[in-house]
Every structure is written in C-alpha cells, then in structure tokens.
Design goal:
Structural class: mainly beta
Distance between the termini: 19 Å
Number of domains: 1
Strand order of the largest sheet: 1-3-4
Order of helices and strands: EEEEEE
Number of helices: 0
Number of strands: 6
Length: 55
C-alpha cells in the first residue's frame, strides 16, 4: 500500500474532509504525515486534526 498525495494547500481540501492514512498532506510551509490506522479531518478553520483509529 502506497502513500496518497492530497492537494498541496489545506484550503483546497473542503471543510469536513476526512483523509484516511497513509497520506501525505503538503502545504507551501509544512508537510503532514497521516500514518496507517489514523485519519485526518479538516476543521472549519482549515486546520488538520489527526486522530488515531480505534482498534
């Protein structure tokens, strides 16, 4: 299983988006890795909220 690349700027991800890991979220000034068994949600301020997936 490879790592998905999502759009490079956080504002290009719609509010409420849930990105399952593994994923690499790139932005002009940062990179966020979402590991396997984690998800990332885009909140109303376009911040990335990583969360561990319960096992």
């Amino acid at each position: 299983m490879g790592v998905r690349r999502e759009p490079s700027l956080r504002p290009s991800l719609p509010i409420g988006s849930i990105i399952p890991g593994p994923a690499l979220l790139e932005q002009y000034d940062s990179t966020t890795l979402v590991p396997s068994d984690w998800t990332a949600r885009v909140d109303e301020f376009f911040k990335i909220e990583p969360r561990a997936t319960p096992s």
